[in-house]
Amino acid sequence: MSDQMPNLQPQFLTVGEGEAAREIAMLVRPAQAGNNVPTLVWLSGYRSDMSGTKALELDGLAGEVGTACIRLDYSGHGLSGGSFRDGTISRWLEEALTVIRHVAPDRVILVGSSMGGWIALRLAQELARQEGPKPAGPKLEGMVLIAPAPDFTSELIEPNLTAKERKSLAERGYFEERSQYSPEPDIYTRALIEDGRKNRVLDGMIETGCPVHILQGMKDPDVPHAHAMKLVEHLPADDVVLTFIRDGDHRLSRPSDIALILGAVKGIIRTSMAG
Q: Where is the AB hydrolase-1 domain (predicted)?
């Protein structure tokens, strides 16, 4: 695939003003001339970045089909500036929205992993809200959500907090949890949890206005597969496909998982081109 991988250099975009300003890193693969396939947008999970396996595979697919691909690192992640502890869903959503507006594609397919699935659903709401005489964002052509974790702060973290974790949140403003994926512990702040409540999407009907394909491992220790079922219930107006991967974990990064993810993206591309 090397001939299709241009030497992409990160570009940096300042998001926010004053003390809230941070430099957001993005990798933007340009579309081949004359290509009108929707731009693919990668949205990483919590503590993941744009150079992970799935992100690279999506970029490779964009190269194969000749379309553009946008990847970014949220503040406090990867190559971006800003402190991880300042991170909230609202802040990371603002960064994703600003990057998409800056690159300004006409049409996009959002591909979100874990927390990136939550950000994708919030992006759909924000893009729909901005449509008026002059849309301030691209048309959403489809979504692929990989082990999506919408509302994970209120649905998966808050109900399971231990007394010790509650005490740490109250006294220190955060608690730590051992990570399966990194030697560094996962940090969950009070700001993240409080802001999560303001960004809930599972509290009513979600209208994305586009086809949605959800892929969920049934052996996922982080996001139970019942969470994916719950999400489907909140998408009654959309064309939703839910694929369960019986032995799939949370990362879904094995070659067989990647093949299913890329197949889902290709399916959404086909639908968008036929429409």
A: 57-255
